[in-house]
Amino acid sequence: MKIYVLIPFLIMSLPLFSQNIEIINPVKEIGIKNWRIVNDNVMGGVSASTMYINEEGNLIFSGEVSLDNNGGFASCRLDIETVNLKDVTSFKLRVKGDGKTYKFRFSESYRSTNYSSNFETKKGTWLDIEIPLKNLKPTFMGYYSRSSPKLKIENMNSMGFLISDKQKGEFNLEIMFVQAIY
Prior knowledge:
The chain is mostly beta strands and 182 residues long.
């Protein structure tokens, strides 16, 4: 067989060889422990949120964002210290939301900078969202930070979701899975 016949086959086969690591998949009991809630009450706000697994076996991040007392955010964070993220190129999320905008974010111990990317949801509709690593931007206290160090994904020890940007009221984000794409 001539080599020029093999080249198209090899190029078309490359996606088959990409590796996906599940970070969250409640049905398989992956990523359901070691979550913590961090809401604006750490700064005097009164927003509230919770995490639980619904009857369908999906992870639910829900609650209410309040702007009272200069508040306005709710977040959940998963400890991912044991997940090897070196050489990750993107993340794939399967989520069903409420039409609001959420942030998918990462942080490193003892650093004030977070790295996040916004994603839109469509009320009551499952969406597959891919977030390339290059879309994770540094933020400090909710604002873009030009002086932050460049993201080193292998140093991140928590991953999570955040709702903010004055989106007051009830919210609900259903998460079927999160995968790291290598």
